[in-house]
Amino acid sequence: SHTGSFKDLGMTVLVSMVHQMRCEGQDIPAIVCASTGDTSAALAAYGAAARIPVIVLLPKDKISVSQLIQPIANGALTLSIRTDFDGCMRLVRELVQKENVYLANSMNSLRIEGQKTVAIEMVQQFDWTVPDWIIIPGGNLGNVTALGKGFLEMQQMGIIDRVPGIAVAQAANANPLYNSYVKDFQSFEAVAAKDTLASAIRIGDPVSWERAIRVMRQFDGVVEEATENELADASARADRTGLFTCPHTGVALAALEKLLARRVITPDSRVVVVSTAHGLKFPEVKVKYHQDQLRDYDVAPARANHPVEVGADFDQVRGAVFDSLEAAFATSAGVG
């Protein structure tokens, strides 16, 4: 994706439609969104390409520097608000109601139309067969709605003959859907989201919760949560396979491990984990994990990898190489 997250899929549809409406004479002076980082980056990029003014509201000091610089670089009016995402979202809704600006958050169905193509591409890449399970990191819950819509529409058109199981993964520090799930979705209550390494899903009052619960009921879905230590180590474990995962993907991977342990998902299942963004958007988390500087989040890094500093001397370099190889051999021998 162009800006490094799945949000591009929804935003290219939305901005294209706004561009068409403006060309047809509708008075839309700007597009606005609240964001935890990825939505604002996608909106700013596609808005710049379409030459449409963009306004983004971001929670101050609650997104990564890499996410913050994207809308700034693309020329968006970037408002750093002294609140959390839920506070930004309330302000955006009020702004849209009172002023003539266009909403770009996932409560807009155009976003859902774009993001549902994730389901279509997924099935296409499996030669039109359906995975057994989809694991989706859950924040504002638009992706749950979108993927559910994509699978149901393919089933209605006869493209597929069944739908997958859906599991939503939430950070334990921002888990309103999980709390609803353990009550069989009989009620839903917003929570005050706590600080989490998975900052893009630090959302306690998701706008798409009603649609998401409808999808979860249709798919007989499950919800799991992940602690900070679980999500950080799951992300680091995935990185050791050659990936470079974001913390939100870590939430989904940690949830998968827990669902496998409980046999909700069986080892022979074909499972797709939705990786919502690139790890390069969250370099601070990666660096602090490997430097063991996430103790405030109760993270004890099991897979920290420290750089080894040596002098410009062959024997020192050789010694460091062989020490590393011997340690790796001893570890693999112990596992074997």
UniProtKB/TrEMBL annotation:
Keyword flag Calcium: no
Keywords, alphabetical: Pyridoxal phosphate
CDD domains noted in UniProt: Thr-synth_1
Requisite cofactors: pyridoxal 5'-phosphate
InterPro entries: Cys_Synth/Cystath_Beta-Synth, Thr_synthase-like, TrpB-like_PALP, TrpB-like_PALP_sf
Tryptophan synthase beta chain-like PALP domain location: 2-276
NCBIfam families documented for this protein: thrC
Similarity comment: family membership: Belongs to the threonine synthase family.
Protein name from the UniProt record: Tryptophan synthase beta chain-like PALP domain-containing protein
Organism, scientific name: marine metagenome
Lineage, top ranks: unclassified sequences, metagenomes, ecological metagenomes
